[in-house]
Amino acid sequence: MDALIIAAGFGSRLRDISDSKPMTPVAGVPLLELGVRQAKAAGAARVVVVTGHEAERLEAALPALAERAGIPVVAQRVEDWSKPNGWSVMAGASVIDGDYLLMMSDHIFSGSILTRLAQQGGADRGVTLAIDRRCDHPLIDPDDATWVKRDGAGFITAIGKTIPEYDAVDCGAFLATPELAAAIQAAIHEGKAGSLSEGMQRLADSGRAATMDIGEAWWLDVDDPRAHQLAEAQAPAQLPEIYG
Protein backbone atom coordinates (compact mmCIF):
# COMPACT_ATOMS: atom_id res chain seq x y z
CA MET A 1 0.00 0.00 0.00
CA ASP A 2 1.15 3.54 -0.81
CA ALA A 3 0.58 6.73 1.13
CA LEU A 4 -0.29 10.01 -0.57
CA ILE A 5 0.64 13.28 1.16
CA ILE A 6 -0.73 16.57 -0.16
CA ALA A 7 1.94 19.28 0.09
CA ALA A 8 1.12 21.61 -2.80
CA GLY A 9 -0.45 24.67 -1.18
CA PHE A 10 0.88 28.09 -0.25
CA GLY A 11 0.51 27.73 3.52
CA SER A 12 -0.38 31.38 4.08
CA ARG A 13 -1.28 31.06 7.78
CA LEU A 14 2.20 29.76 8.64
CA ARG A 15 4.18 32.28 6.56
CA ASP A 16 5.08 34.34 9.62
CA ILE A 17 7.19 31.48 11.00
CA SER A 18 8.13 29.48 7.90
CA ASP A 19 8.33 30.05 4.16
CA SER A 20 7.50 26.40 3.45
CA LYS A 21 4.68 24.75 5.37
CA PRO A 22 5.72 21.15 4.55
CA MET A 23 9.28 21.83 5.70
CA THR A 24 8.27 23.70 8.87
CA PRO A 25 10.11 22.00 11.75
CA VAL A 26 8.19 20.68 14.74
CA ALA A 27 10.66 20.07 17.56
CA GLY A 28 13.37 19.73 14.92
CA VAL A 29 11.55 17.43 12.47
CA PRO A 30 9.87 18.87 9.33
CA LEU A 31 6.11 18.40 9.14
CA LEU A 32 6.43 16.46 5.89
CA GLU A 33 8.99 14.12 7.41
CA LEU A 34 6.67 13.46 10.34
CA GLY A 35 3.98 12.43 7.86
CA VAL A 36 6.34 10.20 5.89
CA ARG A 37 7.59 8.47 9.02
CA GLN A 38 4.05 7.97 10.30
CA ALA A 39 2.94 6.53 6.95
CA LYS A 40 5.81 4.05 7.06
CA ALA A 41 4.92 3.03 10.62
CA ALA A 42 1.34 2.40 9.47
CA GLY A 43 2.54 -0.02 6.81
CA ALA A 44 3.02 2.12 3.70
CA ALA A 45 5.68 0.81 1.31
CA ARG A 46 6.05 4.08 -0.63
CA VAL A 47 5.01 7.69 -0.16
CA VAL A 48 3.85 9.91 -3.02
CA VAL A 49 4.14 13.63 -2.23
CA VAL A 50 2.06 16.01 -4.33
CA THR A 51 4.02 19.22 -4.89
CA GLY A 52 2.95 22.57 -6.30
CA HIS A 53 3.97 25.82 -4.62
CA GLU A 54 7.80 26.02 -4.67
CA ALA A 55 7.78 22.51 -6.12
CA GLU A 56 11.44 22.47 -7.13
CA ARG A 57 12.61 23.32 -3.63
CA LEU A 58 10.42 20.69 -2.00
CA GLU A 59 11.28 18.02 -4.53
CA ALA A 60 15.00 18.66 -4.01
CA ALA A 61 14.56 17.87 -0.31
CA LEU A 62 12.79 14.54 -0.84
CA PRO A 63 15.81 12.24 -1.49
CA ALA A 64 17.45 13.13 1.83
CA LEU A 65 14.10 12.88 3.61
CA ALA A 66 13.52 9.43 2.11
CA GLU A 67 16.96 8.28 3.25
CA ARG A 68 16.36 9.50 6.80
CA ALA A 69 12.93 7.89 6.96
CA GLY A 70 13.96 4.66 5.27
CA ILE A 71 11.14 4.57 2.71
CA PRO A 72 10.87 5.50 -0.99
CA VAL A 73 9.42 8.99 -1.42
CA VAL A 74 8.47 10.23 -4.89
CA ALA A 75 7.08 13.54 -6.09
CA GLN A 76 4.05 14.06 -8.28
CA ARG A 77 3.51 17.67 -9.29
CA VAL A 78 -0.02 19.08 -9.62
CA GLU A 79 -0.48 21.22 -12.71
CA ASP A 80 -2.06 24.21 -10.93
CA TRP A 81 -1.48 24.31 -7.16
CA SER A 82 -3.86 27.26 -6.73
CA LYS A 83 -6.83 25.01 -7.47
CA PRO A 84 -8.70 23.24 -4.63
CA ASN A 85 -7.05 20.28 -2.93
CA GLY A 86 -9.05 17.67 -4.83
CA TRP A 87 -6.89 18.39 -7.87
CA SER A 88 -3.85 17.37 -5.80
CA VAL A 89 -5.60 14.16 -4.78
CA MET A 90 -6.28 13.33 -8.43
CA ALA A 91 -2.67 14.09 -9.41
CA GLY A 92 -1.27 11.83 -6.71
CA ALA A 93 -3.80 9.05 -7.23
CA SER A 94 -2.90 8.92 -10.92
CA VAL A 95 0.40 7.21 -10.03
CA ILE A 96 -1.01 4.86 -7.38
CA ASP A 97 -2.58 1.45 -7.93
CA GLY A 98 -5.23 0.34 -5.47
CA ASP A 99 -5.99 1.73 -2.01
CA TYR A 100 -3.80 4.29 -0.27
CA LEU A 101 -3.49 6.31 2.90
CA LEU A 102 -4.27 9.95 2.14
CA MET A 103 -2.81 12.60 4.44
CA MET A 104 -2.37 16.36 4.54
CA SER A 105 1.20 17.55 5.08
CA ASP A 106 0.19 19.79 8.00
CA HIS A 107 -1.68 17.14 10.04
CA ILE A 108 0.10 14.97 12.60
CA PHE A 109 -1.31 12.01 14.48
CA SER A 110 -0.60 9.60 17.29
CA GLY A 111 0.64 6.37 15.73
CA SER A 112 -2.50 4.35 16.47
CA ILE A 113 -4.67 6.48 14.18
CA LEU A 114 -2.94 5.68 10.90
CA THR A 115 -2.23 2.08 11.88
CA ARG A 116 -5.92 1.46 12.56
CA LEU A 117 -7.02 3.44 9.51
CA ALA A 118 -4.86 1.34 7.19
CA GLN A 119 -6.90 -1.70 8.25
CA GLN A 120 -10.35 -0.20 7.60
CA GLY A 121 -10.88 -1.23 3.99
CA GLY A 122 -14.01 -3.06 2.90
CA ALA A 123 -16.28 -3.69 -0.05
CA ASP A 124 -18.96 -1.48 1.50
CA ARG A 125 -16.99 1.76 1.18
CA GLY A 126 -15.03 3.85 -1.32
CA VAL A 127 -13.25 5.82 1.39
CA THR A 128 -12.83 5.77 5.16
CA LEU A 129 -12.22 9.05 6.99
CA ALA A 130 -10.67 9.31 10.46
CA ILE A 131 -13.02 11.46 12.55
CA ASP A 132 -12.99 12.94 16.03
CA ARG A 133 -16.29 13.23 17.91
CA ARG A 134 -14.75 15.72 20.38
CA CYS A 135 -16.00 18.71 18.38
CA ASP A 136 -15.23 21.18 21.17
CA HIS A 137 -11.72 19.88 21.86
CA PRO A 138 -9.32 22.80 22.53
CA LEU A 139 -6.86 21.54 19.90
CA ILE A 140 -9.47 22.00 17.16
CA ASP A 141 -9.74 25.35 15.35
CA PRO A 142 -13.49 25.76 14.74
CA ASP A 143 -12.89 28.46 12.13
CA ASP A 144 -10.83 26.11 9.96
CA ALA A 145 -12.30 22.68 10.73
CA THR A 146 -14.10 20.49 8.23
CA TRP A 147 -17.20 19.12 9.92
CA VAL A 148 -18.87 15.76 9.42
CA LYS A 149 -22.44 14.51 9.91
CA ARG A 150 -22.89 10.72 10.13
CA ASP A 151 -25.77 8.29 10.04
CA GLY A 152 -26.44 5.58 12.62
CA ALA A 153 -24.02 3.20 10.91
CA GLY A 154 -21.16 5.70 10.97
CA PHE A 155 -21.33 6.61 7.28
CA ILE A 156 -21.05 10.25 6.24
CA THR A 157 -24.20 12.06 5.19
CA ALA A 158 -22.68 15.56 4.98
CA ILE A 159 -19.18 17.03 5.06
CA GLY A 160 -17.87 20.58 4.76
CA LYS A 161 -16.72 23.69 6.59
CA THR A 162 -20.17 25.29 6.72
CA ILE A 163 -22.66 22.42 7.09
CA PRO A 164 -25.43 23.37 9.56
CA GLU A 165 -25.40 20.15 11.59
CA TYR A 166 -22.45 17.94 12.49
CA ASP A 167 -21.36 15.39 15.05
CA ALA A 168 -17.64 15.01 14.29
CA VAL A 169 -14.63 16.74 12.79
CA ASP A 170 -12.49 15.56 9.86
CA CYS A 171 -9.00 14.61 11.12
CA GLY A 172 -7.33 14.92 7.70
CA ALA A 173 -6.46 11.23 7.25
CA PHE A 174 -8.23 8.87 4.87
CA LEU A 175 -8.00 5.32 3.59
CA ALA A 176 -8.92 5.96 -0.02
CA THR A 177 -9.82 3.69 -2.90
CA PRO A 178 -9.74 4.71 -6.58
CA GLU A 179 -13.38 5.75 -6.09
CA LEU A 180 -12.29 8.94 -4.34
CA ALA A 181 -10.38 10.48 -7.25
CA ALA A 182 -13.17 9.39 -9.59
CA ALA A 183 -15.73 11.12 -7.36
CA ILE A 184 -13.72 14.35 -7.35
CA GLN A 185 -13.47 14.22 -11.14
CA ALA A 186 -17.23 13.60 -11.41
CA ALA A 187 -17.92 16.59 -9.15
CA ILE A 188 -15.74 18.77 -11.40
CA HIS A 189 -17.69 17.59 -14.44
CA GLU A 190 -20.83 18.74 -12.65
CA GLY A 191 -19.39 22.23 -12.33
CA LYS A 192 -17.84 22.04 -8.86
CA ALA A 193 -14.44 23.59 -8.10
CA GLY A 194 -12.71 20.31 -7.29
CA SER A 195 -12.26 20.21 -3.54
CA LEU A 196 -11.65 16.99 -1.64
CA SER A 197 -14.82 17.64 0.37
CA GLU A 198 -16.87 17.80 -2.84
CA GLY A 199 -15.62 14.36 -3.82
CA MET A 200 -16.27 13.09 -0.33
CA GLN A 201 -19.83 14.46 -0.43
CA ARG A 202 -20.44 12.69 -3.71
CA LEU A 203 -19.33 9.38 -2.16
CA ALA A 204 -21.44 10.17 0.91
CA ASP A 205 -24.49 10.69 -1.29
CA SER A 206 -24.05 7.17 -2.63
CA GLY A 207 -23.47 5.64 0.81
CA ARG A 208 -19.78 4.95 0.14
CA ALA A 209 -18.07 7.26 2.68
CA ALA A 210 -17.33 5.48 5.96
CA THR A 211 -15.69 6.83 9.10
CA MET A 212 -13.32 5.59 11.79
CA ASP A 213 -13.70 7.16 15.24
CA ILE A 214 -10.25 7.91 16.71
CA GLY A 215 -11.57 7.89 20.27
CA GLU A 216 -9.16 9.59 22.65
CA ALA A 217 -6.16 9.55 20.30
CA TRP A 218 -4.12 12.73 19.70
CA TRP A 219 -3.93 14.67 16.45
CA LEU A 220 -3.28 18.25 15.41
CA ASP A 221 -3.72 20.40 12.32
CA VAL A 222 -0.59 22.56 12.29
CA ASP A 223 -2.04 25.37 10.22
CA ASP A 224 -1.12 28.57 12.10
CA PRO A 225 1.39 29.85 14.68
CA ARG A 226 -0.83 28.89 17.64
CA ALA A 227 -1.13 25.30 16.40
CA HIS A 228 2.61 25.21 15.72
CA GLN A 229 3.33 26.21 19.32
CA LEU A 230 1.04 23.42 20.51
CA ALA A 231 2.80 20.96 18.23
CA GLU A 232 6.23 21.97 19.49
CA ALA A 233 5.06 21.47 23.08
CA GLN A 234 3.11 18.23 22.63
CA ALA A 235 4.45 16.28 19.65
CA PRO A 236 7.62 14.86 21.30
CA ALA A 237 5.55 13.22 24.05
CA GLN A 238 2.70 12.14 21.74
CA LEU A 239 4.99 10.69 19.05
CA PRO A 240 7.63 8.70 20.95
CA GLU A 241 8.23 6.45 17.95
CA ILE A 242 9.67 9.48 16.15
CA TYR A 243 11.16 11.61 18.92
CA GLY A 244 12.01 8.83 21.41
Notable characteristics:
8 helices; globular; two-stranded antiparallel ribbon; about 240 residues; 9-stranded mixed beta sheet; alpha/beta
Brief digest:
With 244 residues, the protein is of the alpha/beta class.
Total beta strand runs:
13
Number of discrete helical segments: 8
Mean pLDDT over all positions:
95
Rough outline: globular
- SSE pattern: EEEHEHEHEEHEEEEHHEEHH
Instruction: Give the biggest beta sheet.
Output: 9 strands, mixed
Portion of residues in beta strands equals: 25-35%
Helix content: 25-40%
User: Regions with pLDDT < 50 over 5+ consecutive residues?
Assistant: none
Structural class: alpha/beta
Multimerization state = single chain
> What gap, in angstroms, lies between the N and C termini?
26 Å
Radius of gyration, in angstroms, nearest whole number: 16 Å
Descriptive overview:
With 244 residues, the chain is of the alpha/beta class. The protein is 34% helix and 25% strand. The strands form three sheets. Strands 1, 4, 5, 6, 8, 9, 10, 11 and 12 form a nine-stranded mixed β-sheet that branches. It has a two-stranded antiparallel sheet with strand order 2-3. A two-stranded antiparallel sheet has the order 7-13. Helix 2 (55-69) links the parallel strand 4 (46-51) and strand 5 (73-77). The longest helix is centred in the N-terminal third of the chain and has 15 residues, at 55-69. It is globular, with a radius of gyration of 16 Å.
